[in-house]
Task: structure prediction
Amino acid sequence: MRSRHVPVLLFSAVVIATQLLAVMLGRPQYLTQLTMTGYYSLVIIGLCMLIGYAGQISLGHAGFFAIGGYVSAFLTTFDLMSFKGNRLVGLFSNAGLLVTVQDLYGGDALVFHPWIACLAAVLVTILIAYVIGGPVLKLKGHYLAMATLGFGTIVYKIVLGTAFLGAADGLSDIPGFRLLPSLEVSGKAPARIQNYYIAWGMVALGMLLLTNLIHSRVGRALRSIHSAEDAANAMGVNTGKYKLHLFVLSAVFAAVGGVFLTHYNGGIGPSEASIMKSVRYVAIVAIGGMANLWGALSMGIILNFLSLRGYFGSYDDAVFGVILILIMLFAPEGLLRREVFRGAKKWISGRGKVEGQKA
Amino acid sequence: MNIELLSQYLVAGVTYGTIYAIVAIGFNIIYNATGIINFAQGEFVMLGGMIAVSLHAFLPLPAAILAAVLTAMVIGALIEVIFIRWLVSPSVLRMIIITIGISIIIREAALHIWGEAVRALPYFTGSEITVISIGDVHISPQVLWVTGISAVMVALLTFFFNYTLPGRQMRACAANQDAARLCGISAKNMVTLSFVLSAGIGALAGCVVSPITYVQYDSGTALAIKGFTVAILGGLGNSTAAIAAGLILGILESFSVWVMPTAFKDVVSISILLLILFVRPSGIFGSVEASRLKEF
Amino acid sequence: MTILEVHNLNKRFGGLQAVGDVSFSVQHGSIKALIGPNGAGKTTLFNLLSGILPPDSGTVRFSDANVQGLQPYQVAAKGMSRTFQHIRLFPHMTALENIMIGRHMHSKAGFLAGMLSLPWTRKEEKAVRERSLAVMAFLGIADFADTEATSLAYGQQRILELGRALACDPKLLLLDEPAAGLNMRETAEMARLISRIRDTGITVLLVEHDMSLVMNISDEIVVLSYGQKIADDKPLAIQKNPEVIRVYLGEEDA
Result:
């Protein structure tokens, strides 16, 4: 057990405590917003890695969230029953990729199994991220910002304008995602607590994986790229390749968040791909301290939860715009710098130096 | 495709293209003076239209437009003074994010002031059914207003930059800020002036095109992206090229409706943006070396 | 045996011929110095060799391969590592972590292995750590392992950057003004370290202005002026070379 795993344990404890508290205080509906917040958090920690450790801004990450969600939504609701005679459909059916579900009118519909849909969503995301990541990451400054903004907007316009993706109404009646015989990702009230733990379990897992990555050879290389890219290159680090891999990794995190939230909500709409959402994610990473995973996660939880509970009213988007401006004006490195957390880490581990410490 | 349809697409392309070009010129003015991309440029266009519509309720049209343009100019100056002026050597990335934030605030303010409704000024001459016919080609007089006023703006800007003292001072600042300051030019004021100018031309463009395109609280964002595309296409900082580039984008976008659903019109322009950024960020008319020398 | 062969290397920036038709070779296991007045093109030449800049024409032959035009990380993989004229350490990382980057090419753990923290990666990390500490010990800076790199004294930072390049296990080490900003004692120490490095079998090509260091430890010296090579000889001969003297000290009044 390494000291860097302690925060994940503490976090898990907080997650459990929160759930018990919510039930005890008679506010189980908070768990719904908290579950959704959890899935948004996946996007945020992935983006935090990209911005903080590869130094690449992305103003279009909502696009990847939407790609994940829409691919999964489409494949689990598009009825292949009328294509039953088709060779390809027969192939899918024999391979066990398809399931029969009840459609809106009580008849039978033939759709892809949620696991296959999820896999497809992730693969599509990986493909798109590799294709656009290559040229995008060669850009700098405002060109990079505009390119990522453009990407996100293209995704938004495509889902908004495509009939079979639901156009402005999006896709709905998405079936639940049965992970295990007794564990299903869906919005059904009885499964509320279950789903809460699924979401936060995934966040904990994501934090574990990313924390491991930061402390590994790759993490060190990424940090060197962020501090002095040309020097890193001269020391044998293939900086282009690493930035690209990290970009794709962060896209996958966003897409997985999208897949699971879609099944939980039972639907997805074009607004999930909008610039406003992308700006929101960047604002949260910025206020959390750009290379500070736990900072971004905490701020993300607080702000997303408040937003979902409606505390920002009609000023929802404005709040994040203001946050972004304030951070960029006064503290472009982010408010919760790693120093603050390192102090906390010291206290936790009980010794002067933390293993694998970085400044 | 017959002449009538072709000309319709062409006219639409020229109309929109002209507006994109004006937005791009606004980008260029600020970029030349400061090196930053002001994403809020699109909002000036939106504000021009919205404010003019509100003022038109109790002012005659020309007065409403003038007041709207002046208001936008004041807002432009305020933005510069409040958000930009006091920053010390900010990176361009930080700046573009700040201006994106500013555009969001303006957008949200517009939403709360004017709601989600689309608005438009009345046609300057005639109405929406008036047409001027040249053979098989039917043009709304408003199109002539758009191109006419834009041409006048460009002419005035050219005169301003080449023959007036403040204009030449701005060009001096753009070329070499330190040398300009040594000559007694206030670089800070030049920056404010660049924002005022860009806001003004954007607002006027917004007024003159609103009868045709309508204006809505969120019209600004798409214009900013397309204006930026045009600016890049022509070479960042090159306003003459921006005119040509604007027309090219407007016409391409317009004709794209022929081959794909209208809903994807924006996808076309953004794809063009990505294509340029990936392949030739210096634009069609820009020099590759010059674009590399600019600080990113 | 020749380890580096530069042939007719050219680089022009607009109107300036920064490096003009430069050719020279470096013998394996030797220390070769590259000197010349400011603006002679020495750092540009280094940037051409290490891949930071592509040459306009000419070849660079290193370890039986043409390396001109390769990316810096590819050049490094072939066995050429370098230090920088203006120190380019990684801020926000400890001295040890800076050195450990030097071991990047000699380790393998990738994204997946890193995220899952597989057991073999832990072993690899341990080996990287130990090797890096050994490099630091060799250079006498092992005590600073856990200090943040940019908080070290200037002289120590120079040695640290040297260590980082050394950790790459290079065959050829490019040192760009390793003694810049160092006082006499530190310069002598640096000279000693470079000699020790050469003694371990690593070839050194260095740019330097400090003549005492250059004359003391170099086996051969190349002199550049305005991008052209004007001399390539042993130290004593260079000292007496009239062209070199003219370039540094100017013409004697007739």
The first strand of chain A starts at residue 98 and ends at 102. Chain A has one domain: 3-349. Residues 68 and 81 of chain A are 24 Å apart (CA to CA).
